[in-house]
Amino acid sequence: MGIWSKRSAEALRREALQEDSATSLRRSLGPWSLTALGIGAIVGAGIFVVTGTAAAEYAGPAIIISFLLAASACTCAALCYAELAAMVPVSGGAYSYAYMALGELPAWVLGWSLICEFLFAAATISVGWSAYLSSLASMAGIHAAPALWRAPITLDAGRALHLTGAIANVPAALMALVMGGALMRGAQASARINNVIVAIKLAVILAFIGFGAFHVRPANWTPFIPPNLGEFGRFGWSGVFRAAGVIFFAFLGFDCVSTAAREARNPSRDTPVGIIGSLLACTVLYVAVGLVLTGLSPYHELAVADPLLAALRGGGPSLAFLGPLVGLGALIGLTSVMLVLLFAQSRIFHAMARDGLLPAAFARVHRTAAVPRLGIAVAAVATAALGALFPIELLSELISIGTLFAFVVVCASVLLLRRTQPSLPRPFRVPSAPLVGGLGVAMCGYLMFSLPVDTWLRFLAWMLVGLVLYFFYGFRRSAAAAAAGVAGGVDGPF
Hints:
This protein is mostly helical. The protein has one domain: Amino acid/polyamine transporter I, CATH 1.20.1740.10. It has 18 helices and two strands. The protein has helices at residues 9-17, 31-42, 45-59, 63-87, 94-101, 104-139, 170-183, 187-212, 236-246, 254-259, 267-296, 307-314, 322-354, 373-389, 392-420, 433-449, 453-477, 479-484, and strands spanning 153-155, 161-163. The chain has a two-stranded antiparallel sheet with strand order 1-2.
């Protein structure tokens, strides 16, 4: 027992059937809502924000190869997520799977990593949303004070932090708080809002691809893979792989579907559909946008927070009419990403609190809205603070490493459970599991190690804080420890 205590699949399934407790979530999401939940999270930062930076600093026009590499690794992880989500349809996603396969301490480490992933992803989205709002305001002749639209901290050319003189990115913070308020209305209401937003932003993206394709300049794709600048990760093939690691979080979204399995009407069928369907649809869109983006504008001019608008400007006056439409579509699209990420973050809090690793208040569900309101509020406030203070480059790198770590653990969990518990019911099974799971571990692991050293240092610092919290709080109060009498721990609200 202790730090290696595990939760059985049977116990997790029994928990999923509880419908009348104060910590029970309501089953209200069907296959379309789950697929739209995934698309709502995936189609956003990757297209509207980070694609330009990754092309300008790492891969050039070969950013589309980076997307395909990242998608290949994601496909392995998505299949593994689908098997586990169908087997144990509970909130918490990868955290709950790790608790079942690996034990309490690995589950805490992964849960803390997921908190990093969703928190920094939501903050990145809020900064991108603010940049597109600023561009739209400028088009309308409105110029707000820069001190209220920029982060007070930034990265210089040597990747050191320094002050900008700004006060805070106020629109980014307000966006996070508004989305938190929307989520408190309930999962079904949030899903309806998300479905409408997804339809709008897909129409805008298709318009960008359709009209932009007629104005691309093939010369912008030469050289397709820019020569390496003498440093690993700065163009060349090493840059293509580094870009794949940096933009990996652009595929963040299908794993958000797994955190909603507890709220699916038919989780064994609908959750795999939502996970795999959203990933495949978005991969096609990403490649198409990457081609048009780098075809409209030289890749070195795309290192901005609103690359689609920069590309349209590079495409000439004939595409000027698309600027306001794409800017508005980006605002709407990023809104749905924020909604889904805060949704997923609160469900991680909910699952960890039910296991006693976080205060029990995070597991309480509002009587009428049927959502964990405290988790939503904490996620929204923390996101607002990060988005207000830090630059997008720093935020986006921390997301990728957290996401990749979660995917490695999920793929490894499938392999381990196939060996240790082969008789467990599996409504969905990963085809050629040893190959797919092994490739997922290898590819995601390689992409992790391709990330910059300072990203690793910040991630390790985050994990160190998490371990301190676990041993001073979670270990003593976990439900597994209380059941076994470990450390005399008991569940309690604090």
